Amino acid sequence: MALVPTWRLRAAFARRLSDMYGTEVPAYTTLLEVAGQINDEVAGRDPDAGRLGSISRVTAERHGAIRVGTPGELRQAAQVFAALGMHPVGFYDLRDGDIGAVPVVSTAFRPTDTDELDRNPFRVFTSLLTASDRRFFDADLESRLTAFLARRRLFPPELLELAEQAEKADGLDEPAAERFLTLAVDAFRLSTEPVDRAWYAELERISAVAADIGGVAATHVNHLTPRVLDIDALYRRMGERGITMIDRIQGPPRWDGPDVLLRQTSFRALAEPRAFREPDGRVTSGALRVRFGEVEARGIALTRAGRARYDALTAETDRRMAEHPDADRGQSARALWQRDFPRTEHQLAVERQAFFTYHPVPDRPRDGHHPPADLAGLLTGGWLTARPIVYEDFLPRSAAGIFHSNLTGEGTRDARRTGTRYDAHRLSAAIDRPVLDPFALYAAQQDRSLRQALGTLGADAA
Ligand code: OOG
Ligand code: NI
């Protein structure tokens, strides 16, 4: 029987998750409608709209977010995502950000090959509760949390077996694929199990995220995020449709230079009905407000140097905002960017601030010249063209902001204590799979294209 290949499993999973989320969170459906309209409008008026991804890719594109409690749960999630061709990329430590700290470390599962990204770029930002971090949890609470988490099962054994099989064979036959998809989507549905009121409230005093992860018996999609080509227009239009967004768009400012990295904004979902178990054993109905909607616009991936410049500009914007709290953040940031950030893609390329793939110009007229050795010369002399590489990852500060702006309480954190050390290596060891470095992935793609392009130019000139 023919196999349903990995990418089709991924595309089907993303679509079914999106359909499920739409029935669970109605405002998400509004968001998809508005994002779709805006993408059509931009595609209709801007001949360059497909420069950072074809309209069909962008329209289908989503990222999701989930949160798990233990390294063992993360390892199982990694197995499910491996079946979908999604690998852990990047390490994000959200525990001591300058925007409210959250007791999690995170990675993102996503396709890494360009062909796979083109077929379907679905990614899931996945956070792991750090129960051993003494800034948040004392030893007693840690041990009760660990015991609670050890009793629950997020992924049924049948799902994990099918996932292993799919990873090994790069797909599943039709009936197995159907079963796998059903079980996988179910694993991320909001659970109807009663929530232990006292336990949930105890964790919520520490952090609403800790309660959302460790206070319930299952995990769930926390949000799903479509991609939009004009996020400023979307922000306004959602307001007109009566959905209040958070107070700003996170990430780089709107400006007239190239779009880089990632801009995101979100809205809080409505409270959802949930069953509670009271201390006296009665089951009552209540509500929790834990899920939300988010939307994003993606730009060009920055090199480490470009990223350092971006981070410095963000820090400088913060400093100015602290001095002039009433100033408009977007305007302050824009002024700084106009002074200090490369204004064109060409400049980003020749200053090695952003990643591009390079391609020989096939019909360059023969003028007796030989291709120069430097990238700037090759680009201005019309030998090579540069195509931007899209940023496929996340920004820790925006992530912390998204977590934070959607939480109810401030939570508590004891800054006098030290946290547990966590890094990409430790996360890799916990899940027994390498957590990949996003910069290395972009650089490899760029270098491959440049080598090929120079090879072609050399052969033509010889
Ligand atoms: C994840 C928040 C981070 C993003 O887009 O930066 C995120 C979460 O709320 O679990 O999804
Ligand atoms: Ni998100």
UniProtKB/TrEMBL annotation:
Q: What is its EC number?
A: 1.13.11.93
Q: Which cofactor does it need?
A: Fe(2+)
Q: Which UniProt keywords apply?
A: Dioxygenase, Iron, Oxidoreductase
UniProt cross-references to SMART domains, sorted A to Z: DUF1338
The enzyme class is oxidoreductase
Q: Where are the transmembrane segments?
A: none
By its UniProt entry, which PANTHER family does this protein fall under?
2-OXOADIPATE DIOXYGENASE_DECARBOXYLASE, PTHR39479
- What is this protein's record name? 2-oxoadipate dioxygenase/decarboxylase
* Organism whose genome encodes this protein: Streptomyces albospinus
